[in-house]
C-alpha cells in the first residue's frame, strides 16, 4: 500500500494523478477463513482491523451484502461523544472517542475528526437534574464534561434562542472534546488498512444461511457459495434479528427506522453539535455548510430504510423554536436507516448461544460514535474470549436482569 | 405514512392517530414458569423481515387497542382485527398468503 501524504499528492500530480492505486482489493472468496465478519460497516471493519493489528489474526473475511459502509455507517449524523451515565457505557464510548482522536494518523486516512464540542441542552427541570448527575458521574469515570449555564450556552452557540416559550434553555451538558467525523471515511480508512493486512473484503455477497455441526459454527452459505470459518462475528445492525434467525436464535432487539435530513448549505453559523433531547432533535453544521439534523425513531418495526414524514416534521418544528434562524432554510435531502434497539438502549456485544458465533448489535440510535471502541473490544472478545470493555454488554444481561439503562443518555427519545 | 382501519370504531386514519404497541399474541409467563420462558416473554422479539403481527392503539381516536398484520419490508398493511382474538382471522391469513406464500410468524402460517 502506498502511503498517503503531501509528498504523495505532489508525486502523483507529476503523473496527472493517474497512478493512485485502489484503496482496497476486491478478491474472490477463499474456501475457508479463520474469522468471518458479516457486515462491512464501521463496526465490522473496525473489528477486522483490530483483530489484525492487536492480535495478529489476518486470515479474515468481511462479507457485505450491499456495498461497504452503505448501511447505517453512511446514514448517521456523524456525532461523536462519550457523556454516558453508566460506567460500562462511558468506558466503551470514551475508548472510542479517544481512538477517533488519532484515527487519521493510525489508518493513514483522513477521517476528518473534528473535536468541535457537543452540547446536550437541558430544557426541563428534570433534564437539568439528569445532566448534573451525568456530569458528576463523568467526573468519576474520567470523561471530561461539565454542566454549563444558559449564558455559557449562548456564548458557545450564538444562534440559539434561550427563552423559547415551550422549551427554554436551562443549561447544558458540554463535552468540549466530542465532535464529528467524516462517516464514510471511517469505513473507507478501516477497509484500506484491512485490505493492506491481507484481509478479504467481499462486497455484494449476501449471507443466506449459517452452517453448524454439533452445536458449533462451521461456516456460512452466501450468494457466492459456501465459505467455511472457525469463528463468526455478526455485525449487521438493523438486520441482526434476521441473521440471528439463520443461526437459530432470537434476540431482544427490534428494528425501527431513524431519520436524518440536511438543509441547503449556508455560511458557517454553528461550530459545535447541539442536541435537544426533549424535543427529539439534534443539529450540527457540516463542512459543506449544510445543517445536519437528526430526529427520533418511528414507533413500529420497519426494514424499509425510510421513516414516516411526520417524525421529520416534528423534529424540524421543535428545532425552529430553539433555532429561529433555520425557519427559512430549505431542506435538501432526507433519509432513513434501520437501527436495532434493545430494551435498555445499550448494545449487545458477546457470545451467541451457538459456539463460535459472536454478536455485536443493538447500537440503536448511537452506533457511529462507538465504532473504534466497539471494534477494539469485539476483536479482543473474538480473539481471547473475554474483553473488559465488552464484559457488561453480553446477551446474558437480560436473563440476569443486569441492564445498562441508558435510555436517558441515548440521545433521542424513543 | 401508514393508513390503518380501526376495527373498534371503524375510522380509517393515518399513523399519527395511532400508537404502535409492539408484538401481538404474546403468551404470558408469570410466577411458576421457568427463567428461560420468562426471559423470552419479556425480552426476545420476533422482529421479522416480512410479515409482522402487532398491537396498535387508536390513541387519538376511540382509545381502544386492536391488532394489525403488516409487512415490515413493504409497509403494506394486510388488515386489522380485534384484540380479543388468539390468532389472525382466516381472511387476513389468506391475504398475506396471496402476497407472501409460505409465510410464518411464530406458530401461525
UniProtKB/TrEMBL annotation, chain A:
<dbReference type="Pfam" id="PF01266">
    <property type="entry name" value="DAO"/>
</dbReference>
<protein>
    <recommendedName>
        <fullName>Sarcosine oxidase subunit beta</fullName>
        <ecNumber>1.5.3.24</ecNumber>
    </recommendedName>
</protein>
<dbReference type="InterPro" id="IPR036188">
    <property type="entry name" value="FAD/NAD-bd_sf"/>
</dbReference>
<dbReference type="GO" id="GO:0008115">
    <property type="term" value="F:sarcosine oxidase activity"/>
</dbReference>
<keyword id="KW-0288">FMN</keyword>
<dbReference type="GO" id="GO:0046653">
    <property type="term" value="P:tetrahydrofolate metabolic process"/>
</dbReference>
<dbReference type="InterPro" id="IPR001763">
    <property type="entry name" value="Rhodanese-like_dom"/>
</dbReference>
<keyword id="KW-0560">Oxidoreductase</keyword>
<dbReference type="InterPro" id="IPR006076">
    <property type="entry name" value="FAD-dep_OxRdtase"/>
</dbReference>
<keyword id="KW-0285">Flavoprotein</keyword>
<keyword id="KW-0963">Cytoplasm</keyword>
<dbReference type="InterPro" id="IPR006278">
    <property type="entry name" value="SoxB"/>
</dbReference>
<keyword id="KW-0274">FAD</keyword>
<feature type="domain" description="Rhodanese">
    <location>
        <begin position="35"/>
        <end position="79"/>
    </location>
</feature>
<comment type="similarity">
    <text>Belongs to the SoxB family.</text>
</comment>
<dbReference type="GO" id="GO:0000166">
    <property type="term" value="F:nucleotide binding"/>
</dbReference>
<keyword id="KW-0547">Nucleotide-binding</keyword>
<dbReference type="GO" id="GO:0005737">
    <property type="term" value="C:cytoplasm"/>
</dbReference>
UniProtKB/TrEMBL annotation, chain B:
<dbReference type="GO" id="GO:0046653">
    <property type="term" value="P:tetrahydrofolate metabolic process"/>
</dbReference>
<dbReference type="InterPro" id="IPR038561">
    <property type="entry name" value="SoxD_sf"/>
</dbReference>
<dbReference type="InterPro" id="IPR006279">
    <property type="entry name" value="SoxD"/>
</dbReference>
<dbReference type="GO" id="GO:0008115">
    <property type="term" value="F:sarcosine oxidase activity"/>
</dbReference>
<dbReference type="Pfam" id="PF04267">
    <property type="entry name" value="SoxD"/>
</dbReference>
<protein>
    <submittedName>
        <fullName>Sarcosine oxidase, delta subunit family protein</fullName>
    </submittedName>
</protein>
Amino acid at each position: 500500500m502506498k502511503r498517503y501524504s503531501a509528498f504523495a499528492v505532489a508525486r502523483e500530480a507529476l503523473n496527472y494523478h493517474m497512478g493512485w492505486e485502489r484503496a482496497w482489493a476486491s478478491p474472490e472468496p477463499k474456501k475457508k477463513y479463520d474469522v468471518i465478519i458479516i457486515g462491512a460497516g464501521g463496526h465490522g471493519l473496525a473489528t477486522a482491523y483490530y483483530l489484525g493489528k492487536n492480535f495478529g489474526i489476518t486470515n479474515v473475511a468481511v462479507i457485505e451484502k450491499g456495498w461497504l459502509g452503505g448501511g447505517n455507517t453512511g446514514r448517521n449524523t456523524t456525532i461523536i461523544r462519550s457523556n454516558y451515565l453508566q460506567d460500562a457505557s462511558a468506558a466503551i464510548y470514551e475508548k472510542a472517542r479517544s481512538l477517533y482522536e488519532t484515527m487519521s494518523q493510525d489508518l493513514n486516512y483522513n477521517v476528518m475528526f473534528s473535536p468541535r464540542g457537543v452540547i446536550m441542552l437541558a430544557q426541563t427541570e428534570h433534564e437539568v437534574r439528569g445532566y448534573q448527575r451525568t456530569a458528576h458521574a463523568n467526573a468519576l469515570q474520567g470523561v471530561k464534561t461539565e454542566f454549563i449555564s444558559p449564558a455559557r450556552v449562548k456564548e458557545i452557540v450564538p444562534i440559539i434562542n434561550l427563552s423559547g416559550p415551550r422549551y427554554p434553555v436551562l443549561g447544558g451538558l458540554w463535552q468540549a472534546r466530542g465532535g464529528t467525523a467524516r462517516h464514510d471515511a471511517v469505513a473507507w480508512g478501516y477497509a484500506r488498512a484491512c485490505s493492506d493486512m491481507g484481509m478479504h473484503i467481499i462486497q455484494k455477497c449476501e449471507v443466506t444461511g449459517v452452517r453448524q455441526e454439533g452445536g458449533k459454527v462451521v461456516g456460512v452459505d452466501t450468494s457466492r457459495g459456501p465459505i467455511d470459518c472457525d469463528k463468526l462475528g455478526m455485525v449487521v445492525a438493523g438486520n441482526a434479528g434476521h441473521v440471528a434467525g439463520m443461526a437459530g436464535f432470537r434476540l431482544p432487539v427490534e428494528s425501527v427506522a431513524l431519520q436524518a435530513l440536511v438543509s441547503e448549505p449556508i455560511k458557517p453559523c454553528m461550530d459545535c453539535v447541539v442536541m435537544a433531547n426533549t424535543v427529539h432533535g439534534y443539529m450540527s453544521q457540516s463542512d459543506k455548510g449544510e445543517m445536519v439534523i437528526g430526529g427520533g425513531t418511528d414507533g413500529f418495526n420497519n426494514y424499509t430504510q425510510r421513516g414516516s414524514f411526520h417524525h421529520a416534521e416534528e423534529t424540524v418544528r421543535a428545532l425552529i423554536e430553539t433555532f429561529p434562524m433555520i425557519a427559512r432554510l430549505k431542506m435538501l435531502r432526507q433519509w432513513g436507516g434501520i437501527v436495532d434497539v434493545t430494551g435498555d438502549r445499550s448494545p449487545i456485544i458477546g457470545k451467541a448461544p451457538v459456539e463460535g458465533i459472536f454478536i455485536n448489535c443493538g447500537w440503536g440510535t448511537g452506533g457511529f460514535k462507538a465504532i473504534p471502541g466497539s471494534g477494539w473490544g469485539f476483536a479482543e472478545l473474538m480473539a481471547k474470549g473475554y474483553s473488559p470493555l465488552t464484559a457488561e454488554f453480553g446477551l446474558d444481561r437480560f436473563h440476569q436482569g443486569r441492564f445498562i439503562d441508558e435510555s436517558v443518555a441515548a440521545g433521542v427519545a424513543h | 405514512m401508514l393508513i390503518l382501519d380501526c376495527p373498534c370504531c371503524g375510522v380509517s386514519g393515518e399513523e399519527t392517530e395511532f400508537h404502535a404497541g409492539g408484538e401481538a399474541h404474546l403468551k404470558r409467563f408469570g410466577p411458576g414458569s421457568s427463567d428461560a420462558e420468562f426471559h423470552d416473554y419479556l425480552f426476545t422479539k420476533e422482529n421479522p423481515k416480512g410479515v409482522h403481527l402487532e398491537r396498535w392503539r387508536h390513541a387519538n381516536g376511540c382509545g381502544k387497542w386492536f391488532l394489525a398484520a403488516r409487512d415490515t419490508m413493504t409497509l403494506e398493511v394486510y388488515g386489522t382485527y380485534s384484540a380479543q382474538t388468539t390468532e389472525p382471522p382466516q381472511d387476513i391469513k389468506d391475504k398475506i398468503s396471496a402476497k407472501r406464500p409460505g409465510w410464518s410468524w411464530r406458530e401461525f402460517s
